[in-house]
């Protein structure tokens, strides 16, 4: 008997989420699946894109076609890792399904208690990073997170202030002459004030360059610009153990970055700029802080690359870093199926057919260019 399969479509997914009120996460057949798709299960089963058997897709001229190993094979390859949003609109995907199996979970929490502890925390994280190849070789998967916790301290301080000045005084009347409820609610942000950068780490770098890890972590957790001004309000470094295992096995007819097939660890850094930052600060944040972080990662594990779905969107070498030598093939598929560049997205294959005219702002309007060839 072959692998069981399951078909997912937008409509079914929508109905399910209405019924179950699912938490917000990625779309079932969109950028996650088409761009690669990793998770704790990818060590065991491979990337999300590796599991796709067939896509139904509406092309730019309105034609509804099937892409699989027999029909529109080039489109099928492009949709298995070449990224969403650029070849057409996928209306359904047929993917492999696997039986459930038991898993062992482990949580290790290390907190810095003072300034000395902060330096020690970086060294401890460096040691964890150096152990990743050994852990991953034994079949471990999951995520380690290094967080800047100032936010948590600020939240606690704000709660204490409110309780001290207002709530504690009122609470003594509760149930006698007054009925009082006091609750705090935390939102992630007013808007998404954050940017991400990431890089694939191979098996050997964390071990052979163990002495360079504390410095790498110092660079990645940098929170000020060249003028010494603090420009990162919060950060989180994720060490994603989502590769090795099945991910290392090259799959026919995929377009994911070939570097996935030598990856042991995906280092993923998210930084938030202060919410009062203007255009200039945001540009400095992008150009000075994030660029330095990406450079440090690239120097630590050269010749690797990264996962476009979780990459620095301002990486000047994005085509090569996100798709390696597959970019030109993907561009030819884009040209074939969308010759008039109807579909466009930032840093997608074929992106340079349109340019964003920002005029000094962060975002601007789009104009068609003649750059695409
Ligand atoms: C909360 C969160 C958690 C994440 N966790 C993971 C993770 O564990 N592993 C991982 O690999 N990645 C993860 N990511 C990154 C994720 O892979 C990317 O953000 C991906 O682009 C999400 O795809 P989407 O379709 O949900 O998003 P969208 O922003 O809706 O779409 C992304 C791109 O795909 C296109 N697209 C969407 N639907 C279709 C369609 N039906 N047909 C054609 N194009 C389409 C859009 O036009 C857009 O260009 C996470 C992201 C978030 C926000």
TrEMBL record:
Cofactor: FAD
Transmembrane domains' residue ranges: none
UniProt similarity note: Belongs to the oxygen-dependent FAD-linked oxidoreductase family.
Keyword Oxidoreductase attributed: yes
Organism: Penicillium alfredii
Gene Ontology MF terms: flavin adenine dinucleotide binding; oxidoreductase activity
Highest classification ranks of the organism: Eukaryota, Fungi, Dikarya, Ascomycota, Pezizomycotina
Domain Berberine/berberine-like: 307-344
Keyword Oxidoreductase belongs to the record: yes
Keyword tags: FAD, Flavoprotein, Oxidoreductase
Protein name: Berberine/berberine-like domain-containing protein
Pfam families noted in UniProt: BBE (PF08031)
